[in-house]
Design a protein that fits this description.
Length: 287
Amino acid sequence: MTARFEGTADYVATDDLKIAVNAAVALERPLLVKGEPGTGKTVLAYEMARALDAPLITWHVKSTTKAHQGLYEYDAVTRLRDSQLGDERVKDVRNYIKKGKLWEAFDSPRRPVLLIDEIDKADIEFPNDLLQELDRMEFYVYETNETVKAAIRPIVVITSNNEKELPDAFLRRCFFHYIRFPDEETMRAIVEVHFPGVKQRLVAEALKVFYDLRQAPGLKKKPSTSELLDWLKLLLVEDIDESVLRERDPKKLIPPLHGALLKNEQDVHLFERLAFLARREGGRPGQ
């Protein structure tokens, strides 16, 4: 029986996320994870593999990725060239078949965690093209006239950033979980994991600034957890005092080292305008 996932020392998992992971494992369904960028969707698969002591196989999907690449690829061009050169390898077609990530997972002697990362980056047919393989845990190799079956059913984790809607038929075969952006209490726990014993007053002020910033109206890209951690690291390196973050001077309302949090010029300009308006109101942008 597979051990239950309870998070790890380096990954703070909420109760609902633990329930989702363990339910997907018990049902032997792919776990489809959605959420804002930076909420730990991809890292989840890595931590599941660590916690369950399972090998991890990763398939990072791009806009050009095709479903069959996850099964295998047949290099007919190289085989033709080798045949013209009289290479003995051409007699065995297996020499020209490259196993894909699903095939690797199906061949694994131990139950692996298979991560299909950012499935919504591929074209709309990509999820549909994987339906049968993920359902039956087998596929047919035409070149060798054989059926590849999973020795042990892998634990499948699929992430999506909601760039495209996924087909209903695909969704029916998954156990779905949306990772909500961490609340302040959860975020404190995440910070403590990455910066054990960090100054609590600094963290308290940094979190106020961070969540105020995320609530600023019209922000194009809200800062994520990873960006908060980068910012905190810089605050610690530069030995910024919490009093600087608490500063109410309207001219200093933009956070120090804000380049770790704001990642495009539109948001920097927006915050500068909000800070300008706040000069007359004496408040913090976003409040």
